[in-house]
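Please fill in the sequence for the structure shown.

STRUCTURE ENCODING:
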Protein backbone atom coordinates (compact mmCIF):
# COMPACT_ATOMS: atom_id res chain seq x y z
CA UNK A 1 0.00 0.00 0.00
CA UNK A 2 1.03 3.60 -0.54
CA UNK A 3 -0.73 6.80 0.48
CA UNK A 4 -2.12 7.18 3.98
CA UNK A 5 -3.93 4.07 5.19
CA UNK A 6 -4.95 2.26 8.34
CA UNK A 7 -4.87 -1.42 9.23
CA UNK A 8 -6.88 -3.12 11.95
CA UNK A 9 -6.48 -6.77 12.96
CA UNK A 10 -9.30 -8.65 14.72
CA UNK A 11 -10.93 -5.26 15.44
CA UNK A 12 -8.00 -4.39 17.69
CA UNK A 13 -5.83 -1.30 17.79
CA UNK A 14 -5.81 0.74 14.59
CA UNK A 15 -2.37 1.01 12.97
CA UNK A 16 -1.62 3.96 10.68
CA UNK A 17 0.99 4.43 7.97
CA UNK A 18 1.77 7.21 5.53
CA UNK A 19 4.58 5.55 3.57
CA UNK A 20 4.79 2.50 1.27
CA UNK A 21 4.34 -0.71 3.27
CA UNK A 22 3.54 -4.37 2.83
CA UNK A 23 1.47 -6.52 5.15
CA UNK A 24 0.82 -10.25 5.01
CA UNK A 25 -2.58 -11.75 5.75
CA UNK A 26 -3.44 -15.36 6.54
CA UNK A 27 -6.56 -17.44 7.26
CA UNK A 28 -8.22 -17.28 10.66
CA UNK A 29 -7.61 -13.58 11.25
CA UNK A 30 -9.91 -10.64 10.43
CA UNK A 31 -8.23 -7.75 8.62
CA UNK A 32 -9.71 -4.34 7.89
CA UNK A 33 -7.94 -1.47 6.12
CA UNK A 34 -8.78 1.78 4.36
CA UNK A 35 -7.75 5.36 3.63
CA UNK A 36 -6.22 7.57 6.29
CA UNK A 37 -5.37 11.28 5.91
CA UNK A 38 -5.54 11.05 2.10
CA UNK A 39 -8.65 10.59 -0.09
CA UNK A 40 -6.95 7.94 -2.21
CA UNK A 41 -4.44 5.15 -1.85
CA UNK A 42 -2.75 2.67 -4.15
CA UNK A 43 -2.52 -1.01 -3.29
CA UNK A 44 -1.76 -4.31 -5.00
CA UNK A 45 -2.21 -7.80 -3.64
CA UNK A 46 -1.26 -11.41 -4.35
CA UNK A 47 -2.78 -14.62 -3.00
CA UNK A 48 -0.63 -17.73 -2.75
CA UNK A 49 -1.03 -21.19 -1.29
CA UNK A 50 0.40 -24.70 -1.45
CA UNK A 51 3.00 -26.98 0.16
CA UNK A 52 5.85 -24.54 -0.45
CA UNK A 53 4.22 -21.99 1.81
CA UNK A 54 4.80 -24.31 4.77
CA UNK A 55 8.48 -24.46 3.85
CA UNK A 56 8.62 -20.68 3.53
CA UNK A 57 7.25 -20.44 7.06
CA UNK A 58 9.58 -23.11 8.44
CA UNK A 59 12.71 -21.49 6.99
CA UNK A 60 11.69 -17.96 7.97
CA UNK A 61 11.51 -16.74 4.38
CA UNK A 62 7.85 -15.93 5.04
CA UNK A 63 7.40 -14.20 8.38
CA UNK A 64 3.99 -13.46 9.85
CA UNK A 65 3.81 -11.07 12.78
CA UNK A 66 0.28 -9.87 13.55
CA UNK A 67 1.70 -7.88 16.47
CA UNK A 68 3.84 -5.82 14.09
CA UNK A 69 2.28 -6.44 10.67
CA UNK A 70 3.55 -3.51 8.59
CA UNK A 71 6.79 -3.94 6.66
CA UNK A 72 8.03 -0.54 5.40
CA UNK A 73 9.72 -0.86 2.00
CA UNK A 74 12.67 1.29 0.97
CA UNK A 75 12.35 0.30 -2.71
CA UNK A 76 8.60 0.43 -3.42
CA UNK A 77 9.15 0.57 -7.20
CA UNK A 78 11.04 -2.73 -7.08
CA UNK A 79 8.33 -4.39 -4.96
CA UNK A 80 5.60 -3.10 -7.28
CA UNK A 81 7.48 -4.26 -10.38
CA UNK A 82 7.82 -7.78 -8.98
CA UNK A 83 4.15 -7.93 -8.05
CA UNK A 84 3.08 -6.70 -11.48
CA UNK A 85 5.39 -9.22 -13.17
CA UNK A 86 3.79 -12.05 -11.17
CA UNK A 87 0.28 -10.86 -12.00
CA UNK A 88 1.14 -10.63 -15.71
CA UNK A 89 2.56 -14.17 -15.69
CA UNK A 90 -0.56 -15.51 -14.00
CA UNK A 91 -2.86 -13.82 -16.51
CA UNK A 92 -0.87 -15.32 -19.39
CA UNK A 93 -1.23 -18.94 -18.25
CA UNK A 94 -4.00 -21.26 -17.06
CA UNK A 95 -1.63 -22.89 -14.57
CA UNK A 96 0.93 -21.30 -12.26
CA UNK A 97 4.11 -20.70 -14.31
CA UNK A 98 7.27 -21.78 -12.44
CA UNK A 99 8.68 -18.36 -13.24
CA UNK A 100 5.87 -16.76 -11.24
CA UNK A 101 6.82 -18.92 -8.24
CA UNK A 102 10.46 -17.84 -8.60
CA UNK A 103 9.44 -14.18 -8.72
CA UNK A 104 7.25 -14.71 -5.66
CA UNK A 105 10.25 -16.14 -3.82
CA UNK A 106 12.33 -13.17 -4.96
CA UNK A 107 9.63 -10.88 -3.59
CA UNK A 108 9.63 -12.74 -0.26
CA UNK A 109 13.43 -12.48 -0.14
CA UNK A 110 13.22 -8.75 -0.75
CA UNK A 111 10.65 -8.36 2.04
CA UNK A 112 12.79 -10.54 4.30
CA UNK A 113 15.71 -8.20 3.69
CA UNK A 114 13.52 -5.18 4.42
CA UNK A 115 12.23 -6.78 7.60
CA UNK A 116 15.50 -8.29 8.74
CA UNK A 117 17.87 -5.55 9.67
CA UNK A 118 17.36 -7.09 13.07
CA UNK A 119 19.45 -7.30 16.19
CA UNK A 120 21.12 -10.40 14.71
CA UNK A 121 22.78 -8.25 11.99
CA UNK A 122 24.90 -5.42 13.41
CA UNK A 123 24.12 -2.08 11.82
CA UNK A 124 27.67 -1.61 10.50
CA UNK A 125 27.42 -4.93 8.59
CA UNK A 126 24.10 -4.33 6.84
CA UNK A 127 25.33 -2.07 4.04
CA UNK A 128 28.22 -4.43 3.32
CA UNK A 129 25.90 -7.43 3.02
CA UNK A 130 23.33 -5.50 0.96
CA UNK A 131 26.06 -4.43 -1.47
CA UNK A 132 27.31 -8.00 -1.80
CA UNK A 133 23.79 -9.31 -2.45
CA UNK A 134 23.29 -6.72 -5.19
CA UNK A 135 26.60 -7.71 -6.81
CA UNK A 136 25.55 -11.37 -6.79
CA UNK A 137 22.12 -10.51 -8.24
CA UNK A 138 23.70 -8.55 -11.09
CA UNK A 139 26.47 -11.08 -11.80
CA UNK A 140 25.41 -14.51 -10.48
CA UNK A 141 27.58 -16.24 -13.09
CA UNK A 142 30.82 -15.11 -11.45
CA UNK A 143 32.78 -17.11 -8.90
CA UNK A 144 32.81 -15.69 -5.38
CA UNK A 145 35.19 -16.65 -2.61
CA UNK A 146 32.92 -16.04 0.35
CA UNK A 147 35.55 -17.10 2.88
CA UNK A 148 37.95 -14.54 1.45
CA UNK A 149 35.23 -11.89 1.45
CA UNK A 150 34.51 -12.65 5.10
CA UNK A 151 38.18 -12.39 6.04
CA UNK A 152 38.61 -9.10 4.17
CA UNK A 153 35.77 -7.65 6.24
CA UNK A 154 36.99 -8.94 9.58
CA UNK A 155 34.59 -11.89 9.90
CA UNK A 156 35.17 -15.59 10.21
CA UNK A 157 33.33 -17.71 7.58
CA UNK A 158 30.76 -19.15 9.97
CA UNK A 159 29.81 -15.73 11.36
CA UNK A 160 29.60 -14.26 7.85
CA UNK A 161 27.27 -17.04 6.67
CA UNK A 162 25.04 -16.58 9.69
CA UNK A 163 24.75 -12.83 9.08
CA UNK A 164 24.19 -13.32 5.36
CA UNK A 165 21.35 -15.77 5.96
CA UNK A 166 19.82 -13.51 8.62
CA UNK A 167 19.69 -10.63 6.14
CA UNK A 168 18.87 -12.45 2.88
CA UNK A 169 16.94 -15.49 4.05
CA UNK A 170 19.40 -17.90 2.39
CA UNK A 171 23.04 -18.92 2.88
CA UNK A 172 25.36 -17.18 0.38
CA UNK A 173 25.83 -20.16 -1.96
CA UNK A 174 22.10 -20.93 -2.06
CA UNK A 175 21.40 -17.24 -2.69
CA UNK A 176 23.81 -17.30 -5.64
CA UNK A 177 22.23 -20.47 -7.05
CA UNK A 178 18.78 -18.90 -6.83
CA UNK A 179 20.07 -15.84 -8.72
CA UNK A 180 21.66 -18.09 -11.35
CA UNK A 181 18.40 -19.95 -11.87
CA UNK A 182 16.52 -16.68 -12.29
CA UNK A 183 19.02 -15.59 -14.93
CA UNK A 184 18.66 -18.98 -16.64
CA UNK A 185 14.87 -18.64 -16.70
CA UNK A 186 15.17 -15.18 -18.26
CA UNK A 187 17.56 -16.48 -20.94
CA UNK A 188 15.37 -19.50 -21.70
CA UNK A 189 12.28 -17.39 -22.32
CA UNK A 190 13.98 -14.28 -23.68
CA UNK A 191 16.53 -15.75 -26.11
CA UNK A 192 16.96 -18.67 -28.48
CA UNK A 193 20.30 -19.67 -27.00
CA UNK A 194 20.93 -23.41 -26.60
CA UNK A 195 20.79 -24.78 -23.07
CA UNK A 196 24.53 -25.48 -23.11
CA UNK A 197 25.26 -21.79 -23.77
CA UNK A 198 22.77 -20.65 -21.13
CA UNK A 199 24.45 -23.03 -18.70
CA UNK A 200 27.82 -21.39 -19.47
CA UNK A 201 26.42 -17.88 -19.15
CA UNK A 202 25.08 -18.76 -15.71
CA UNK A 203 28.54 -19.83 -14.56
CA UNK A 204 27.86 -23.58 -14.45
CA UNK A 205 30.17 -25.92 -16.37
CA UNK A 206 28.17 -29.15 -16.17
CA UNK A 207 24.97 -29.15 -18.22
CA UNK A 208 23.73 -32.15 -16.21
CA UNK A 209 24.28 -30.32 -12.90
CA UNK A 210 22.64 -27.19 -14.32
CA UNK A 211 19.58 -29.17 -15.42
CA UNK A 212 19.30 -30.77 -11.99
CA UNK A 213 19.47 -27.39 -10.22
CA UNK A 214 16.93 -25.94 -12.63
CA UNK A 215 14.50 -28.81 -12.13
CA UNK A 216 14.88 -28.58 -8.35
CA UNK A 217 13.94 -24.90 -8.58
CA UNK A 218 11.14 -24.99 -11.17
CA UNK A 219 9.99 -28.64 -11.06
CA UNK A 220 10.51 -28.89 -14.84
CA UNK A 221 13.60 -29.31 -17.03
CA UNK A 222 15.06 -26.31 -18.90
CA UNK A 223 13.70 -27.68 -22.19
CA UNK A 224 10.22 -28.19 -20.75
CA UNK A 225 10.29 -24.71 -19.24
CA UNK A 226 11.14 -23.16 -22.61
CA UNK A 227 8.40 -25.12 -24.40
CA UNK A 228 5.72 -24.35 -21.82
CA UNK A 229 6.60 -20.68 -21.34
CA UNK A 230 7.94 -19.40 -24.67
CA UNK A 231 7.46 -15.85 -23.43
CA UNK A 232 6.49 -14.94 -20.68
CA UNK A 233 -5.30 -14.89 -9.13
CA UNK A 234 -3.35 -16.78 -6.93
CA UNK A 235 0.00 -18.50 -7.11
CA UNK A 236 0.00 -22.24 -6.47
CA UNK A 237 3.33 -22.92 -4.73
CA UNK A 238 3.72 -26.66 -5.23
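FILLED IN BY: designer on duty
SEQUENCE:
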Amino acid sequence: CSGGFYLQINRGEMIHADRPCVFITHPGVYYEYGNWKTPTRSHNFLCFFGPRVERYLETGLLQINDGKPLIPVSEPEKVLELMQDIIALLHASRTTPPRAVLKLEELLLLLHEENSPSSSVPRHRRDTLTELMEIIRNHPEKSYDFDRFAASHGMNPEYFRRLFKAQSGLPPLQFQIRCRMRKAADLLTGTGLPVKEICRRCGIESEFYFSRLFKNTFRVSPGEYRREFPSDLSVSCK
